[in-house]
Design brief:
CATH superfamily of the largest domain: Dihydrodipicolinate Reductase, domain 2
Order of helices and strands: EHEHEHEHEHEHEHEEEEEEEHHHE
Strand content: 15-25%
Largest sheet: 7 strands, mixed
Mean pLDDT: 97
Strand order of the largest sheet: 12-11-7-10-9-8-15
Helix content: 25-40%
Radius of gyration: 20 Å
Distance between the termini: 26 Å
Low-confidence stretches: none
CATH architecture of the largest domain: 2-Layer Sandwich
Number of strands: 15
CATH topology of the largest domain: Dihydrodipicolinate Reductase, domain 2
Bound molecules: NADP nicotinamide-adenine-dinucleotide phosphate
């Protein structure tokens, strides 16, 4: 069976996902697309050689009789509307982050999905599908280093064009917030945000860069995330888990060690697209396969809600200078299996 997909939003990441589904992955076909910019959507259909109908609204894509499942890759503030409409239509929906731009919007989606009685929503937290993070999780689950006590994490981008205000916390760190609680199978209870000396190499005056985010989990694990989105030198994601009997580090992307002119060197990637390209492929192949089986196995609407609560608490902590509680309701049974 071929899963027939409708895509809403044919901007940068929408185009990439359509390309991977059409030319790299198996079991699915993009049959419908929409973007507010209809000409751009038509251009994508032509450029990627798709047999897909271009609709003038996202709602029409969701309602189309030949669309089995929906991918939402439009502008963040539109996600909530399209995810709710997909749930109402009884169609599985993959939504790029954010699930909604407010925690309240995410909670509405959680409630609508529970009312529908069936898991339909997956959120685009692709790090859970990354080989390196999966290896690290296997080491922790095998109890190789005892119970985790401390996580030392780094999230560095060479530059962040268009970033302003609190976007480092609400746009890029959301991936850290999701993957770390998945890694630990734990939840956060508080957040603190330290604002060190600000880099001069930052375009936007309203952007604090770097930040140090301190999270505490229910089991007492202390997490430190350095977020530095104008670090200049590369895209660098690090995670070290300190356990009772040892430490475990996120494997570095493979790179050829070069010995030359009295130096040993390795390349560092510069783009998140290159770092996580394989993870995106695995994420979508698993979503296609699970959706075809009538299942939903990836990050859920609940995970999207928890991340929104966490980033809200970080923004609050940044501005208050205090340790702020993260008061999550108990996870409903609907999402615990
Ligand atoms: P983008 O290039 O701006 O693409 C978004 C597209 O959605 C644009 O073509 C935009 O049109 C269109 N759009 C806006 N409102 C719409 C509506 N009501 N109906 C249909 N289309 C609409 O942005 P992007 O970089 O692809 O990002 C899209 C989403 O993916 C964002 O939420 C972003 O956070 C997420 N994302 C996730 C990752 C990840 O690591 N998982 C990476 C990149 C992006 P106009 O340009 O004409 O407004």
């Amino acid at each position: 069976m071929t899963l027939r997909i409708g895509v809403i939003g044919t901007g940068a990441i929408g185009r990439e996902h359509i390309h991977r589904i059409t030319h790299k992955l198996k079991g699915a076909q993009v049959v419908a697309v929409n973007d507010v910019n209809t000409e751009q959507a038509q251009g994508v259909v032509r450029a990627l050689d798709l047999e897909a109908k271009v609709y003038t609204t996202g709602a029409e894509v969701i309602q189309a009789a030949d669309v089995d499942a929906v991918i939402v890759t439009s502008w963040g503030p539109t996600h909530e509307e399209f995810v709710l409409a997909s749930i109402a239509a009884g169609k599985p929906v993959f939504c790029e982050k954010p699930l909604a731009v407010t925690a309240e919007g995410c909670r509405q989606i959680v409630e609508a999905e529970m009312a529908a009685g069936r898991k339909l929503v997956q959120v685009g937290f692709m790090r859970r599908f990354d080989y390196a993070y999966r290896q690290l999780k296997c080491v922790l689950e095998a109890d190789t280093i005892g119970a985790p006590l401390i996580l030392n994490c780094v999230h560095r981008n060479p530059e962040a064009p268009g970033f302003s205000g609190d976007m480092a916390l609400t746009d890029s760190c959301v991936h850290e917030f999701d993957v770390l609680r998945w890694l630990l199978a734990d939840d956060y209870i508080s957040a603190q945000v330290i604002q060190p000396r600000r880099t001069r190499l930052c375009d936007d005056d309203s952007l604090q860069d770097p930040h140090v985010i301190l999270l505490r989990t229910r089991q007492g694990v202390h997490i430190s995330i350095e977020s530095f989105v104008n670090c200049q030198y590369g895209y660098d994601i690090q995670c070290q888990v300190v356990g009772e009997t040892g430490t475990a580090n996120l494997p570095e992307p493979a790179s050829v060690p070069v010995r030359r002119e009295a130096k040993l060197s390795f390349d560092i990637l510069v783009s998140w697209k290159d770092r996580f390209i394989d993870a995106f492929d695995v994420e979508f192949q698993e979503w296609i396969d699970a959706t075809t089986r009538g299942e939903m196995t990836g990050p859920s609407a609940w995970d999207g809600y928890v991340v929104a609560m966490t980033s809200d608490a970080c923004v609050k902590a940044k501005h208050s200078g205090q340790i702020e509680p993260i008061e999550l309701p108990e996870c409903p049974d609907f999402y615990t299996n």
